[in-house]
């Protein structure tokens, strides 16, 4: 197995805003607290420590204990839970929607990234303790985004008739998915994946996801936190009340978004006037301010007194949207850094003003490692075609053209044709204009016609050469589709368990873990990642 690193700017897969966020955070100082670096964790640690209510730790620990009550907790996880009671323990967090059976590969990459970052920080700062956290976005209601996964060549879809927060979905319809996944590993009845599928169960989908993520990552001490919790919402209720009464987040985000646009940075999210939802079983509806009262679709109208009374009695009914969810996380966690994907972290640039408005410490923000896995089978195909890792990021037609030119050698010397065409064009232009200078436009038209004929000849020659190398052309198509499904990065589509054809995942997870570097900004290519035994 070989690990290669490439500057993201070389790959034509990331836009300028992404590149700046990854490599040039010092240029974003108005929109962040400190640039993401190992040294700045020392500063962030002191700021968070002085601005985090220590009494919140007990509430947080009790909430986590409760969520793990139906789970077999190992020593690494148990110790990290209890460590949160100590004022010198801090979290490093990532989060995501409750993807079906971990969904795309980046779900796993995110988690491994914060685990490894925590490990490195524990070595760097021995007087403190750093705990990796996965935040479940269990209150999200966009079921279509998480109801399917791509495993091997199969697209598995979970069909559910429920609505509202996906974490509260019942699991009756999930049995079919578990059976379909198990059938893909039927030739390996004793493999690890079957035990994992048994764990993928619970009173609702949030509990099932917690158990699944715990079963995969428990050896690393990862803590899974579910924000859909009454006691945690109670800690956040002063901010919820401020949003209901003042709608403070709209102004804060609007001002910052305008500053970002003036700097040429594209904004990712648009704030609403009131950035809260109302949730209950089967429902997640926006809370709208209408004059002196509030309106909730599917629930009805509430006076100010009524909605504030409900906030006191049932804070779990109030759900922050994308604008306020980061603030919720940072209010209840002793968190130092949040790590996510590029687009996800770009929207964090819009929300620092929201943190400032309630005097909550804005975390360091980092972009997770991005990885392309070349398993042993695909690596052999690439080597056979004598392609380099850099070639893989080129347009498929460019790869084919360069392959044909290399294979055909003197048989297909397009450079020679170009050279001859250029010389002939210069002779034609000189001859015509020498006889009659006013015929310069005629000469240009004739040269253009010549070049068009040459281009047609070149295309015909390339087509003939492709036919002679038909098997190689099919192989290039196969490689590109495997590594960049529908033209997207592999990590955005392929499920991690596609690299575990024998159903055993622990060893491969460890291998992937060793390939990551949480302080590395570059893109990672892993060649000959072991997917077969």
Describe the structure.
The strands form four sheets. A five-stranded parallel β-sheet has the order 6-3-2-12-13. Strands 10-9-8-7-11 form a five-stranded antiparallel β-sheet, covered by helices on one side. It has a three-stranded mixed β-sheet with strand order 1-15-14. Helices cover 47% and strands 15% of the residues. It has helices spanning 16-23, 40-50, 55-67, 75-83, 105-124, 174-184, 192-199, 205-217, 230-246, 248-262, 304-313, 325-332, 342-348, 352-357, 376-384, 396-408, 414-435, 440-468, 470-483, 506-515; strands at 2-6, 89-96, 129-136, 148-151, 154-157, 223-226, 276-280, 283-290, 293-296, 300-303, 318-320, 335-340, 364-367, 371-375, 523-529. It has a domain at 380-488. By secondary structure, the protein is an alpha/beta fold.
């Amino acid at each position: 197995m070989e690990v290669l690193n490439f500057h993201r700017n070389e790959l034509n897969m990331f836009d300028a805003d992404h590149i700046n966020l990854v490599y040039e955070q010092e240029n974003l100082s108005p929109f962040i607290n400190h640039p993401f670096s190992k040294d700045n964790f020392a500063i962030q640690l002191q700021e968070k420590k002085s601005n985090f209510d220590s009494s919140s730790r007990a509430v947080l620990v009790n909430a986590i204990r409760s969520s793990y009550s139906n789970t077999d907790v190992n020593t690494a996880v148990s110790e990290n839970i209890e460590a949160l009671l100590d004022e010198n323990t801090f979290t490093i967090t990532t989060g995501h929607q409750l993807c079906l059976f971990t969904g795309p590969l980046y779900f796993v990459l995110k988690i491994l990234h914060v685990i490894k970052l925590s490990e490195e920080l524990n070595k760097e700062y021995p007087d403190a303790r750093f705990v990796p956290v996965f935040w479940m976005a269990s209150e999200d209601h966009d079921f279509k985004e998480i109801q399917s996964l791509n495993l091997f060549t199969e697209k598995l879809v979970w069909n559910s008739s429920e609505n509202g927060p996906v974490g509260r979905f019942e699991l009756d319809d999930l049995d079919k998915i578990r059976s379909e996944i198990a059938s893909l590993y039927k030739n390996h009845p004793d493999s690890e994946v079957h035990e994992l599928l048994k764990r993928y169960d619970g009173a609702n989908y949030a509990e099932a996801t917690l158990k699944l993520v715990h079963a995969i990552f428990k050896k690393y001490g990862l803590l899974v936190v579910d924000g859909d919790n009454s006691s945690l919402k109670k800690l956040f209720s002063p901010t919820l009340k401020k949003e209901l009464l003042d709608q403070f987040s709209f102004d804060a985000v609007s001002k910052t978004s305008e500053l970002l646009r003036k700097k040429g940075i594209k904004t990712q999210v648009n704030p609403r006037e009131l950035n809260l939802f109302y949730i209950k079983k089967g429902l997640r509806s926006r809370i709208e301010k209408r004059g002196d009262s509030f309106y909730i679709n599917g629930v009805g109208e509430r006076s100010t007194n009524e909605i504030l009374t409900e906030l006191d009695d049932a804070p779990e009914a109030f759900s922050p949207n994308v604008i306020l969810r980061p603030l919720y996380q940072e209010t209840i966690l002793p968190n130092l850094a949040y790590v996510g994907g590029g687009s996800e972290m770009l929207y964090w640039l819009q929300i620092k003003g929201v943190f400032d408005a309630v005097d909550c410490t804005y975390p360091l923000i980092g972009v997770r490692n991005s990885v392309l896995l070349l398993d042993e089978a695909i690596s052999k195909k690439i080597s056979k075609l004598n392609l380099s890792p850099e070639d893989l990021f080129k347009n498929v037609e460019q790869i084919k053209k360069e392959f044909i030119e290399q294979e055909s050698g003197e048989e297909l010397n397009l450079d020679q044709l170009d050279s001859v065409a250029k010389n002939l064009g210069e002779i034609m232009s000189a001859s015509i204009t020498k006889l009659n200078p006013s015929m310069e436009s005629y000469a240009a038209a004739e040269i253009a016609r010549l070049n068009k004929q040459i281009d047609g000849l070149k295309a015909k020659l390339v087509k003939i050469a492709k036919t002679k190398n038909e098997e190689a052309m099919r192989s290039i198509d196969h490689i590109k589709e495997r590594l960049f499904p529908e033209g997207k990065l592999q990590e955005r589509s392929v499920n991690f368990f596609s690299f575990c054809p024998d159903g055993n995942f622990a060893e491969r997870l460890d291998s992937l873990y060793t390939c990551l570097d949480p302080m590395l900004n570059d893109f990672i290519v892993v060649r000959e990642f072991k997917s077969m035994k």
